[in-house]
Amino acid sequence: MTVAADGNGQQGIAENTVLGGRIRLRQAIGGYRAGMDAALLAAAVEAKPGTRVIEAGCGVGGVLTQVAARCPAVHLMGVERDPAAADLARQNLDINGFGDRASIVRGDVAAGFRALERPAFDWAIANPPYFDDPGALRAPALAKRGAWIADDGLAAWTDFLTAAVRDGGRIVVIHRADRLADILTLLGARCGSFAIRPVQSFADEPAKRVLVQAVRSGRAPLRLLPALVLHDRSGAKHTLQAEAILRGEAALGW
Length: 254
Description:
- This protein is α/β, with parallel strands linked by helices.
- The protein contains seven helices and twelve strands.
- 26% of the residues lie in helices and 29% in strands.
- Strands 4, 5, 6, 7, 8, 9, 10, 11 and 12 form a nine-stranded mixed beta sheet that branches. A three-stranded antiparallel beta sheet has the order 1-2-3.
- The protein is globular.
């Protein structure tokens, strides 16, 4: 990891590598840092060349850069309301060579997709904030609050994603497992063909996360897929499957 000074000369930006060293990622040391959830969301996108992907609340571009590396010739757009995070996202896309097929726009999910005045996308993805009640957890640091607290609730995020894709387009969300019923209800008004991938820390523990894929106007039966298990009891950092996904050697698969 290297640390670079910000515009005021403060040591505030760290640069790490992800996706097996293929991606350089600059992030604010004191802010929310893209990690496992970002890697899993990126691995869940199987966009074909020439298609268009939008991410709501893209932060510093931790997901977008990995999607760009995994999906050649895909066009990407990130929407981010925080100007500092949006600036870092642009930097991350540029330093990884994706600036010619990816862009970042300032925007608030609460304003809705139509406020962007863009045509519908083929994929819309998000890692929404996990809480919409500030009293549900100890108040996070101010720099991390936007990543943890959904000021306008989960419905604002699902509405944005649903409006952002064409009929037949795909939506992918990673969220807390205990919000699965809410996600299905909110997306179910206009989407179907759900596929659900639980994510478990260990095989003998309940899932804490879920990845949900939905198709706008889809009518296929819901599919509950085998869980992705991140760790075993051998002492290794990750299971072989999880390690292959994190290194970009495998996709999550639907």
